[in-house]
């Protein structure tokens, strides 16, 4: 009876998911070594090529977007002014 | 190479505050363009650059903490204070919407019929989907606590399981609320009832999505062995935020769904 109870307890403690067995290796020590290298590269670029690409894309989109926005906004403002300047003919 | 003689973190210069500010400008002017000129380009650009900024900023925080070891005990203490202050500010944010609700519902005007819910509004039955939503969030509060204890006891598999359950429950809540919104007999433009209902529950729903995203990031970090049984502040911050979201819902349920019907 007690043996059955103990067995039940073991089943309850066993995990259901096997997802973790998809062999996630602990790469933290490698990353620690990479990011602690004394090479003057700023943190936001220290991860490699992907960092630089992402950084460049973000900068281009934000600064370019600001320029585009200012242009688009100004263009729209002028357009609306032009429309407002010419009265529509009533039919 | 110079070494500091203190335990604090002197953060290195970073471009993300600038891109964050620019993305905020793009988002706000994008909203104006959308509302008035029917163009969504700027808004989409703003959302994209905002997402890129957040991803890279918090990626760098992980690098500083987990990979470079900058998150010493005093630094962690500061991060804790920071998260607590942030959540407090969110409490005040929601307090405003609850104020608005009680202001209108405690003294309903003659235009509404002198009673609450106002004339013409059929409120949702609080014992149907809203009650299910309440149980979903409460259960998620239990599962996240289970995940935390598993983490502290070095039980990797159970932590992953429990955190996954929490995230799935959060997703379930979001789907249920979305279907409620779709099926609702009243809209946001149905007077003050509609306004208070959808603004309060809408912002709450947004916070559930934000919280679920935060938890998902923690899930990925746990898979990548970032957390130790003694040091896992990112997870604790996510858990605090999640409990906050749960508590806001309880207030919403009792005030708007239950008392307000």
From TrEMBL, chain A:
Major subcellular location class: mitochondrion
Tell me the GO BP annotations in alphabetical order.
mitochondrial electron transport, cytochrome c to oxygen
Chain segments annotated as coiled-coil in the UniProt record:
none
A single cellular component GO annotation:
respiratory chain complex IV
Tell me which Gene3D superfamilies the record gives: Cytochrome c oxidase, subunit VIIa (4.10.91.10)
Topologically, how does it sit relative to the membrane?
A: Single-pass membrane protein
Is the Oxidoreductase keyword given for this protein?
Answer: yes
Question: Which GO molecular function annotations are given, in alphabetical order?
Answer: oxidoreductase activity
**Which pathway is this protein engaged in?**
Energy metabolism; oxidative phosphorylation
The answer to whether UniProt assigns keyword tRNA-binding to this entry is: no
Alphabetized UniProt keyword annotations:
Acetylation, Membrane, Mitochondrion, Mitochondrion inner membrane, Oxidoreductase, Transit peptide, Transmembrane, Transmembrane helix
Q: Which Pfam families match?
A: COX7a (PF02238)
What is the annotated localization of this protein? Mitochondrion inner membrane
Taxonomically, the superkingdom here is Eukaryota
* Entry similarity comment: Belongs to the cytochrome c oxidase VIIa family.
Q: What is this protein called?
A: Cytochrome c oxidase subunit 7A2, mitochondrial
Recorded source organism is: Homo sapiens
UniProtKB/TrEMBL annotation, chain B:
Organism, scientific name: Homo sapiens
Chain segments annotated as transmembrane: 16-35, 41-58, 79-102, 159-177, 197-220, 240-260
Q: Please describe what this protein does.
A: Component of the cytochrome c oxidase, the last enzyme in the mitochondrial electron transport chain which drives oxidative phosphorylation. The respiratory chain contains 3 multisubunit complexes succinate dehydrogenase (complex II, CII), ubiquinol-cytochrome c oxidoreductase (cytochrome b-c1 complex, complex III, CIII) and cytochrome c oxidase (complex IV, CIV), that cooperate to transfer electrons derived from NADH and succinate to molecular oxygen, creating an electrochemical gradient over the inner membrane that drives transmembrane transport and the ATP synthase.
- This protein is called Cytochrome c oxidase subunit 3
Phylogenetic lineage: Eukaryota, Metazoa, Chordata, Craniata, Vertebrata
Domain Heme-copper oxidase subunit III family profile per the UniProt entry, residue ranges: 4-261
Recorded family membership = Belongs to the cytochrome c oxidase subunit 3 family.
Query: What reaction does this catalyse?
Result: 4 Fe(II)-[cytochrome c] + O2 + 8 H(+)(in) = 4 Fe(III)-[cytochrome c] + 2 H2O + 4 H(+)(out)
Taxonomically, the superkingdom here is Eukaryota
């Amino acid at each position: 009876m007690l043996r059955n109870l103990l067995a039940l307890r073991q089943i309850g403690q066993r995990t259901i998911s096997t997802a973790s067995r998809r062999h996630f290796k602990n790469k933290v020590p490698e990353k620690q070594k990479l990011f602690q290298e004394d090479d003057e590269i700023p943190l936001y670029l220290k991860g490699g090529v992907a960092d630089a690409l992402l950084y460049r894309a973000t900068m281009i989109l934000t600064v370019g977007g600001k320029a585009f926005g200012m242009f688009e906004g100004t263009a729209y403002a002028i357009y609306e002014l032009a429309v407002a300047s010419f009265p529509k003919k009533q039919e | 190479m110079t070494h500091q003689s203190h335990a604090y973190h002197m953060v290195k210069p970073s471009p993300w505050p600038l891109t964050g500010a620019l993305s905020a400008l793009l988002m706000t002017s994008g909203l104006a363009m959308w509302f008035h000129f029917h163009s969504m380009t700027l808004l989409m650009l703003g959302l994209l650059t905002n997402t890129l900024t957040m991803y890279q900023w918090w990626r760098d925080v992980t690098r500083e903490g987990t990979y470079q070891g900058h998150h010493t005990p005093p630094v962690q203490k500061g991060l804790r204070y920071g998260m607590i202050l942030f959540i407090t500010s969110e409490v005040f944010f929601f307090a405003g919407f609850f104020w608005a609700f009680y202001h209108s519902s405690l003294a309903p005007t003659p235009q509404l019929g002198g009673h609450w819910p106002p004339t013409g509004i059929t409120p949702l039955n609080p014992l149907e989907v809203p009650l299910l939503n309440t149980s979903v969030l409460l259960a998620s509060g239990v599962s996240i606590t289970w995940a935390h204890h598993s983490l502290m006891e070095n039980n990797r598999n159970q932590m992953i399981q429990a955190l996954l359950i929490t995230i799935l429950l959060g997703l379930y809540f979001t789907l249920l609320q979305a279907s409620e919104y779709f099926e609702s007999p009243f809209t946001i433009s149905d007077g003050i009832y509609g306004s208070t209902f959808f603004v309060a529950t809408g912002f709450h729903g947004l916070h559930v999505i934000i919280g679920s995203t935060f938890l998902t990031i923690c899930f990925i970090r746990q898979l990548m062995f970032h957390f130790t049984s003694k040091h896992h502040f990112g997870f604790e911050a996510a858990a605090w935020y999640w409990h906050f979201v749960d508590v806001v819902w309880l207030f919403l349920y009792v005030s708007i769904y239950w008392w307000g019907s």
